[in-house]
Amino acid sequence: MWVLPLVGYAGVFFGFGFLTLAIASGLYYLSELVEEHTIFAKKLLSRLIYAIIAIQIFLAVVDRFPISLSLLSIGSHAIYAGNLRHFPSVRLADPIFLLSCVLVILNHFFWFRHFSTPPAISPSRSRTANRYDYTDIPSFTEIASFFGICVWLVPFAMFVSLSAGENILPSMGSEYATGDSGRSSGATNKLGVNGSQSRRGGAKGLVKAAIDGTFQWVGELAEGLGLWRGDKRRF
Q1: Which of 11, 30, 69, 143 is paired with 226 by a 20 to 30 Å CA distance?
Q2: CB 39 within 8 A of CB 219
Q3: At what angle do helices 3-36 and 206-224 cross, to 10 degrees?
Q4: Nearest Cα to 56, choosing from 68, 45, 44, 46?
C-alpha cells in the first residue's frame, strides 16, 4: 500500500494543525478574559496557590510524600505568589519572575524523577515480592493529575494572565513593568479622559502577545516566500 499511508500522514498533519489552532484559540480567549477581569483573576490565582500548598501539606502528612520535594513545591508556590504584587504587570528581567521560571523546571524534573523511581522493597519481601503487586503505586491518571494540578497549573495560569512590560500602554501602575514613571504619568493624563480606554487597552497578556507575534511572523514569512502578497515583508 502506497496511497493509504500518505493519507494517514496527511490526516496526522492536519489533525495536529487543528489541535494547535484550537489550543491557541482557547489560550487567546482566556487571555482576553483575564484582561477584562484582572481583579477576579488575581484573587483566583491567590486562592489557587493557597489550595495547592494545602494539598502539598496533606500529601506529605497523609500519603508520606518526600518532605524535601514537598517543601520545594511549597516554597515554589510562595515564590509564584510574589509575581502577584503588581498583577497583571511583570518585568521579564524581574528576579522573582526569573526564579519562578527556574523553579517550574526544577519541580517538573524532581517530581518526574520521584515518580519514575521504583518503590523501595523491604529486605524481608525482596525475594518473593513483585513491584507490580503493590497497590500503593500511583496510577498514570493519579500522576498526570498531580502534575497538572500541583506542578503546572499555577505557572500555566500565570503565563496566561501576566502581561509583559513592553506590551503595556502607559496607565496607572504600568511604571513597574515599563520602568518609566515620568512618561507613564504624562500619558495617563492624556489617556485618562477615557477611563475604559486606559483600562481595557492598557495591558496585553504574554500568551496573547506570543500568539499575535507568531501569526504575524508566519504571515510575513509567507509574504517573503511569495505565497501571498501583502503590504509588509520581513525580507
Answers
A1: 11
A2: no
A3: 140
A4: 68
User: Around 174, how many Cα atoms within 13 Å sit in the side-chain half-sphere?
Assistant: 24
Residue 81's pLDDT band (cuts 50, 70, 90): very high
Identify residue 22 by its one-letter amino acid code. A
Least confident of 9-18, 100-109, 193-202: 193-202
Rounded to whole angstroms, how far apart are CA atoms 76 and 39?
23
Three-state DSSP at 59 gives helix
| Omega cis (within 30) before 123 | no
**What's the pLDDT tens digit per position in 127-167?**
555 555 555 688 899 999 999 999 999 998 888 877 644 44
Q: Give the CA distances from residue 9 to residues 18, 21, 60, 75, in Å, rounded to whole numbers and listed in that order.
A: 14, 18, 46, 45
**Overall pTM > 0.70:** no
Cβ distance 89 to 168 under 8 Å?
A: yes
What is the torsion angle, in degrees rounded to the nearest 10, for the CA atoms of residue 111, residue 116, residue 122 and residue 125? 150
- State the virtual CA torsion across 12, 14, 18, 20 in degrees, nearest 10: 60
State the chain's mean pLDDT as an integer. Answer: 75
Helix/strand/coil for 122 = coil
